[in-house]
Amino acid sequence: MDAPNGRLSDPASLRRAKRRATGLLLAAAALFVVMQLLTDDDGWAGYVEAAAEAAMIGGLADWFAVTALFKHPLGIPIPHTAIIPRRKDAIGASLGEFVQDNFFDPEDLAHWVADRAPAEALGRWLAAEGDAGLVSGPALGRLLESMVDGGHHRSMVDAAVERADRFLVDNYEVLRDRIAEEAPVYTPKVLDHHIFTRLHRGVRGVLADMADDPNHELRLRIDAGLRSYAQRLQTSQRLATRVEAVLARAGESLQSDSTLQSRVDGWLVSAVGLLARHAQAEVANVIGSTVARWDADDTSDRIERRVGRDLQFIRINGTLIGALAGLAIHGVGQLL
């Protein structure tokens, strides 16, 4: 969580900011005491005393508010203090929901991808040579194997299953008529349509089962097939060379064929939208569960080191604004 070079994560910088804020508060308190002991509240002394008193109140109020975020002020377990340690898990869940709702919106991500013409960039990368180009076949195999072992491919399988089911629904009549055309001429149309309807319903049923069951037999077969292919990429030079050549040619085509670029852009935009839709809940769960594993006191300390320095300026501003408010209030009182 700590920034390697960020000033906000520097403990010494945070301590200096705290000393400045506390010093200003003590100065206001000392001035108030001096004015109380050595002067009366007439004339200019009244203004100074009012400013010091209001500055002290403002500084104390903001000290309490800032401190209450991270710990109990003066170690006293006052209700609604030590907010971050006490509400750490709820904060993590809320953060996950915030990221899910604002950064993983399928439509926003799809528009972001579409604006960047990903197909042309993908083509340049695939067709590039040397270190700037495509990684080797064995490296691709290791990457694929790592994705399968970590389950990172599952969201893509989910997206493929959803897309296949949508294709079957959207193209029901086209597929039915095509099957009827291919059927023997001596079978009745009614029978052809009945067979197709049963087949269509059965395939959609299999897809629904795959969507609901992460351990479905077909999913396990897909996993085994991908893992086997990944291992072959790492051990078969012939296969690796062939895959690299195919991808390089695909890259050249993507750079030169605008029609293909538009088509691939559409596929990628659609895929990103589907993946985002499937990943939304998972992202929120990952963030929430990660924060839940953090130690409460350590989490509070790390967050304070990140934002505590800026919060000390709230204390300073509260002291100064309090002084100005005290002057204004005293001045209005004198006029009345």
Q: List the secondary-structure elements in sequence, H or E.
A: HHHHHHHHHHHHHH
Whole-number tally of structural domains? 2
Structural class: mainly alpha
Give the biggest sheet. Answer: none
What Rg is obtained from the alpha carbons, in whole angstroms? 33 Å
Structural shape: elongated
Strand content: under 5%
Mean pLDDT: 83
State the total count of DSSP E strands: 0
Q: Alpha-carbon distance between the termini?
A: 55 Å
What percent of residues adopt helix (DSSP H or I)? over 70%
Description:
This protein is an all-alpha fold and 336 residues long. It folds into two domains: 7-86 and 295-335; 90-293, no CATH class. Helices cover 82% and strands 0% of the residues. The protein contains 14 helices and no strands. The chain has helices at 11-38, 43-70, 83-86, 88-103, 106-115, 118-127, 137-149, 154-170, 172-182, 189-212, 217-235, 237-256, 258-293, 296-335. Helix 1 packs antiparallel against helix 2 (43-70), helix 6 (118-127) crosses helix 12 (237-256) and helix 12 (237-256) packs across helix 13. The relative contact order is 0.18. Residues 1-8 have low confidence and may be disordered.
What keyword list fits this structure?
mainly alpha, 336 residues, 2 domains, 14 helices, disordered N terminus
